[in-house]
Design brief:
heterotrimer, A mainly alpha (about 300), B alpha/beta (about 325), C alpha/beta (about 325), A: about 300 residues, MetI-like fold, about 75% helix, about 0% strand, flat, C: about 325 residues, alpha/beta, 12 helices, 12 strands
Chain lengths: ~300, ~325, ~325
C-alpha cells in the first residue's frame, strides 16, 4: 500500500492545515480589500458630512458613521491600506538593515560582532514605544516618522535572530565545503547561508508584522503618528473612545480589525514554524492508515 | 621518483579552551609526492581532521609552513588563497551535509563553474563528463540533497571537487558514513580517478582496512603528533611503534578462523590539554621505560628507507 | 541447545511522512541459549527495528506489527505493559549505539545503576551500592568507589559503554541485545568492549544478540550470524560457515566488498545500485535487481529457505 508520495504535493499538504488556511484566507481578504479599496468603498472615506454624523448602523452605513459623518466601513477598508503599508514599511526597514548586519556579525565574529551587538543593546535598552516617542518628538509627528521610528526599534530583534541562525549554519559542512571550493565570503553569506535562514526568518517576519501593527496603532492612538484625515485603525479607535457608550462601533470595529489581523498573523506564523519543523509535521491520519494496513495484513 | 607536491613543515595548531591550550596538531612534518595517496590514520582526538583543515587553510596555523607546489601558502589571507583553491579541493565525511540543502545538485555544480569562470557551454559539457566519470546520470541534476542516497551524494561531492581540475584532493573520512557495499563503490572510484587523472590525495580515516587498501604511504597520528610513517606495505608488515602495533592488532578479524595476537591498551586516550612529560604515549605504553620516556618528547627519525618512527627506544 | 527466544514471522510496518515503510517483512529466527548471535546488514535492512521490537521499544503508535516473539512461553507482542516492564531489564536487557545519549546527564552513574537494582531486584540502598560497585569492577571501571559518584560527562565513550553494559547486566538478564555497541567507538576501544562482551557470555552464560553492519565484529565474537536484506533474513548459519561458504549472492558480494589485507590497490567487488526503499510491496526476491545471477524466476517468485549444510540456511532459488 502506498500513499501518494509525489514530493511537491506532500510538502504543500504539510502546510495546508486548517489554521493556516483559515488565517491565510483572512489575511488575503484584508490584503485584497486594501488593494482594491477605491473600487469597493461605498463612500469617500474622507468626505465630511456633518448632517450624517454619529449615525447607527443601517443599510446605508453598515457600521454607522463617525463624528464627522464619515462612513466607518469605508474608513475601515482604507484603514487597511494604511495599516498594511505602514507595518510592511516597518518590517522592511528592520530587514534591510538588520539582516545583512546579522549575517556579517554572525559570520565574522570578533570586533565587528561586538560592535554591532552593542549598537543593538543600546536600542534594546529602551522600551520600544518610548524610543519611538523620543524619535517622533525630535523629528516631528507624521506617519513616515512613525514608520521610521518603529522600524529602527525592530532592527535588533531580526538582526540577532539572523546572527544566531548564521552562527549555526556557519559550522555546517556545506559552508566548510563552499570555503574550500574557494567561494568568496559575500557569496557564501548571501547565496548559501541566507537562503537557509529564510524559513525561520519568515516566521519571525510574520510575527513582526503583527507587532508593527500594534505599535503603530499605539503611536497613532496617541496622535504621534498618522495625522487626520488619513484613515487608520489605531487613530479611529482613539477618535471613537469618547462615544464608546453611544456608538461603540466607532472604536470596536477598528479594534476588532486589528485583533483579527494580528492574531491571524500570529497563527499563520505558528503554522509556518510547525511546517518547517519536521518533527511537528502532521502525519497522514494514523487511525485510518492502520485500518488499511490491518486489512492488508489479514487479506 | 616524482616531485613533491605538498610539503608540511613543523605544523602546529593550538586552540585555547578556557585558558588552557589544546595542542590539536603538534609539530607535524610530512611530504606528499605527486600521484600519491597519502593516508593519515588515528583515533578520535588524534588531530587528523584538524591537520586536514589546516592544510586546506580552513583554519589558521599557529606555527609551521604549508608549501604547495613550491609556494608557501601558510600566511595567505582568504582572498589570496582563492588562486590556489582551484588546485586543492576537498571531499568531506558526511555527504548529506556537504551540499547546500536549498540548492539543487545542478545549481551547486554550476555555481562552481561560475566561480571558476567556466563559460556556460563548457560548464554543461564538463558537468556531463564528470557525471559520467563518477557513474551517474543527468537525472540527478534537478534533485535536492534529500532525494539522493549517501552513495550518490558522495560521488557528486567527488565530481564537484573535480570541476576546477585540481591537482590535489583532501578526503576527510569520505567513506566512514557509508554502507559497506557503497564504500566499495566509492573506493573503486577513487582508485580509478587516481589512475585516469593522476591525482594526488590525502586520505584521512580511522579505518585501517580502508587505508591499507588504497593508500601508498600511511602516517599514524596520536594526540597531535605523527608516531609512525611509512609506505603502506612496510607499515603493516614491519610495524614498529607500540601504538601503531596496538592499533593494527585491534583491527577486527577478516574471518573468524584468524588468530590475532591482540594488544589491548590499558585505559583511555589522555586529555589533550593535560599532556604528560616526554612521550605522550608513555602512560599507556607497554614498553615504558622510566627515565627515558618521560624526559624529552621523541622526534620522528628514519629507521629504514622511508620508514619513520617517533620513539626513544627504537633505532 | 535450547532456544531461549523464538521469533515467528515478524512483520512491522511503520508510518512515516513519505508513506508506509515495510520495515520488517517476515522474520523468523531462534536464539539459542548462551550463544552470541550477530545480525548483519546495511542501513534500512530492518535489523535495528527487529531488535527493538523484541522489547517493544519501537514506536508502537506509529507502527503495526504482526507475528510472534516467544520468550518463556509468552508472546512478547501481546503482553500487557506491566508484564512487559517486568521483563525489560531483568530478563532481557538492551544497550544502544551511542552511550553518550543513553545515560541521563544529570544523575551520577552510581545512581543510574542502583536505580535499576532497586526497581527490579528490590534491593535496599546498601545492598544496591555493594552490587553496583562489584558490577563496575566487573566491567573494568576502576577505581569503582570513586567513579561511582561521577557524572556521565566525566567519562569517555568507551567507559560509558562499559557503564551501559554494567547497567544492562545488573539484574542478570538472560538475553542482552546490543545494537551497534561499538560503532561509535574507536578501534582500540572497540576491541576492549568486544572482549568484555565475550567474557560476560562465557562467565554468565548470557545470550547475546548483537546487531552490527561490521563483519569484523561478527568474525570477532559471534557464534552464529544472520544476514538481513530488505526486511528479511537472507542467510543464517554458523559464523565459520558464513565466512567460508556464503551461499546467498548478497552475503557473498558483501563479504567480497570489504577491503582485506593483502589486496592493496585492487578493485573491490561492489554491488551495483542501492538497497530498496521499503515503501512498495515486492514480488519475487528483493535482491534480484542487484543480483548478478538473477533471472525471470527470481523476479516472480520469492525464494524459500534452503539448507546448504547443517544449520546453514539461505533464501535463494539456486545453489550457487
Amino acid at each position: 500500500m502506498t500513499i501518494d508520495t509525489t514530493s511537491k504535493r506532500k510538502k504543500m499538504g504539510g502546510l495546508l492545515t486548517a489554521p493556516a488556511v483559515v488565517t491565510a484566507s483572512i489575511l488575503a481578504i484584508i490584503i485584497i480589500a486594501a488593494v482594491v479599496a477605491p473600487l469597493i468603498v461605498p463612500y469617500n472615506p474622507d468626505k465630511l458630512n456633518l448632517y450624517e454624523s454619529l449615525m447607527k448602523p443601517s443599510a446605508a452605513h453598515l457600521f454607522g458613521t463617525d463624528k464627522s459623518g464619515r462612513d466607518i466601513l469605508s474608513r475601515i477598508i482604507f484603514g487597511a491600506r494604511t495599516t498594511l503599508l505602514s507595518s510592511m514599511g516597518v518590517v522592511l526597514i528592520s530587514m534591510i538593515v538588520g539582516i545583512p548586519l546579522g549575517l556579517i556579525s554572525g559570520y565574522f565574529g570578533g570586533k565587528i560582532d561586538s560592535f554591532i551587538m552593542r549598537l543593538w543593546d543600546i536600542i534594546l535598552a529602551f522600551p520600544s514605544l518610548l524610543l519611538a516617542f523620543i524619535f517622533v518628538a525630535a523629528f516631528g509627528k507624521g506617519l513616515v516618522n512613525a514608520i521610521l521610528a518603529i522600524g529602527i526599534v525592530f532592527i535588533p530583534m531580526i538582526s540577532r535572530l539572523t546572527r544566531s541562525l548564521t552562527l549555526t549554519e556557519k559550522n555546517k559542512l556545506y559552508v566548510q565545503s563552499a570555503k574550500s571550493i574557494g567561494y568568496s565570503n559575500t557569496r557564501i553569506l548571501f547565496r548559501h547561508i541566507l537562503p537557509n535562514c529564510v524559513p525561520t526568518l519568515i516566521t519571525e517576519i510574520t510575527l513582526d508584522l503583527g507587532y508593527a501593527i500594534l505599535d503603530l496603532a499605539a503611536l497613532n492612538f496617541i496622535g504621534l503618528g498618522v495625522q487626520p484625515p488619513i484613515a487608520d485603525w489605531g487613530a479611529m479607535m482613539q477618535e471613537g473612545l469618547v462615544y464608546l457608550s453611544t456608538n461603540p462601533l466607532i472604536s470596536l470595529v477598528p479594534g476588532i480589525a486589528i485583533v483579527l489581523t494580528v492574531v491571524s498573523l500570529n497563527v499563520l506564523s505558528d503554522s509556518i514554524q510547525a511546517y518547517l519543523d519536521p518533527s511537528q509535521r502532521k502525519l497522514p491520519p494514523i487511525k485510518k492508515l492502520k485500518k488499511q494496513m490491518v486489512g492488508e495484513l489479514i487479506g | 621518483m616524482s616531485e613533491t607536491l605538498i610539503e608540511i613543515k613543523n605544523l602546529t595548531k593550538n586552540f585555547s579552551v578556557n585558558k588552557k591550550i589544546l595542542h590539536a596538531v603538534d609539530d607535524v612534518s610530512l611530504s606528499i609526492e605527486k600521484g600519491c595517496i597519502f593516508g593519515i590514520v588515528g583515533e578520535s582526538g588524534c588531530g587528523k581532521t584538524t591537520l586536514g583543515q589546516c592544510i586546506m587553510r580552513l583554519l589558521d596555523v599557529t606555527k609551521g609552513d604549508i608549501v604547495f607546489n613550491g609556494k608557501n601558502m601558510t600566511h595567505l589571507n582568504q582572498r589570496q588563497m582563492k588562486e590556489y583553491r582551484q588546485y586543492m579541493q576537498m571531499v568531506f565525511q558526511n555527504p548529506y551535509s556537504s551540499f547546500n540543502p536549498k540548492m539543487t545538485i545542478g545549481q551547486a555544480l554550476r555555481e562552481v563553474c561560475t566561480v571558476y569562470k567556466i563559460s556556460k557551454g563548457d560548464a554543461d559539457e564538463k558537468i556531463k563528463k564528470l557525471l559520467q566519470y563518477v557513474g551517474l546520470n543527468d537525472d540527478v541534476l534537478p534533485r535536492h540533497v534529500s532525494e539522493l542516497s549517501g552513495g550518490q551524494l558522495q560521488r557528486l561531492a567527488i565530481a564537484r571537487a573535480l570541476i576546477p581540475d585540481p591537482h590535489f584532493i583532501m578526503a576527510d573520512e569520505p567513506t566512514s558514513s557509508l554502507d559497506v557495499s557503497i564504500q566499495a563503490q566509492i573506493l573503486n572510484l577513487i582508485m580509478d580517478l587516481r589512475e585516469k587523472l593522476g591525482l594526488t590525495m590525502m586520505f584521512i580515516s580511522h579505518e585501517l582496512t580502508v587505508v591499507e587498501h588504497i593508500c601508498d604511504v600511511v602516517a599514524v597520528m596520536y594526540l597531535g603528533r605523527i608516531v609512525e610513517m611509512a609506505p603502506t606495505e612496510k607499515l603493516f608488515s614491519e610495524v614498529l611503534h607500540p601504538y601503531s602495533k596496538a592499533l593494527i592488532s585491534a583491527k577486527p578479524k577478516d574471518d573468524p578462523s584468524q588468530n590475532i595476537e591482540r594488544i589491548i591498551l590499558e585505559g583511555d586516550v589522555p586529555d589533550a590539554m593535560d599532556l604528560p612529560n616526554g612521550c605522550r604515549f608513555s602512560p599507556r605504553c607497554p614498553n615504558y621505560q622510566k627515565g627515558v620516556c618521560d624526559g624529552k618528547e621523541p622526534q620522528l627519525h628514519e629507521v629504514s628507507p622511508g620508514h619513520f618512527v617517533s620513539c626513544h627506544l627504537i633505532n | 541447545m535450547d532456544n531461549i527466544l523464538s521469533v515467528k514471522d515478524l512483520k512491522i510496518d511503520v508510518i512515516s511522512e513519505r508513506g508506509v515503510v515495510h520495515a520488517v517483512r517476515g522474520v523468523t529466527f531462534d536464539l539459542r541459549q548462551t550463544e552470541i548471535h550477530g545480525f548483519v546488514g546495511e542501513s534500512g535492512c530492518g535489523k535495528t527495528m527487529t531488535a527493538k521490537s523484541i522489547l517493544r521499544l519501537h514506536d508502537e503508535e506509529k507502527s503495526l506489527s504482526s507475528g510472534e516473539i516467544l520468550y518463556n512461553g509468552m508472546d512478547i507482542l501481546s503482553l500487557k505493559k506491566k508484564e512487559l516492564r517486568e521483563i525489560r531489564g531483568s530478563e532481557i536487557a538492551m544497550i544502544f549505539q551511542d552511550p553518550m545519549q543513553s545515560l541521563n546527564p544529570l544523575l551520577t552513574i552510581g545512581e543510574q545503576i542502583t536505580e535499576m537494582l532497586r526497581f527490579h531486584e528490590k534491593l535496599n540502598k546498601k545492598d544496591a551500592y555493594i552490587k553496583a560497585i562489584s558490577l563496575l569492577e566487573d566491567v573494568g571501571i576502576k577505581p569503582a568507589k570513586s567513579r561511582f559518584k561521577q557524572y556521565p560527562f566525566e567519562f569517555s565513550g568507551g567507559m560509558l559503554q562499559r557503564i551501559m553494559i554494567a547497567i544492562a547486566i545488573s539484574c542478570d538478564p538472560k538475553i542482552l541485545i546490543a545494537d551497534e555497541p561499538t560503532t561509535a567507538l574507536d578501534v582500540t576501544i572497540q576491541a576492549q568492549i568486544l572482549q568484555l562482551l565475550k567474557k560476560l557470555n562465557k562467565e554468565k552464560g548470557m545470550t547475546i544478540y548483537i546487531i552490527t553492519h561490521n563483519f569484523g565484529v561478527v568474525a570477532e565474537i559471534c557464534d552464529r550470524v544472520s544476514v538481513m536484506y530488505a526486511g528479511k533474513i537472507v542467510e543464517t548459519g554458523d559464523v565459520g560457515q558464513i565466512f567460508k561458504n556464503p551461499c546467498h549472492p548478497y552475503t557473498k558480494s558483501l563479504l567480497e566488498s570489504i577491503p582485506k589485507s593483502g589486496y592493496h590497490g585492487q578493485t573491490l567487488q561492489s554491488i551495483p545500485g542501492s538497497p530498496p526503499q521499503l515503501f512498495e510491496e515486492m514480488t519475487g526476491c528483493p535482491f534480484a535487481p542487484r543480483c548478478s545471477y538473477a533471472n525471470k524466476l527470481c523476479y516472480e517468485k520469492e525464494p524459500l529457505a534452503a539448507e546448504s549444510e547443517k544449520d546453514h540456511f539461505y533464501t535463494c532459488h539456486y545453489n550457487l
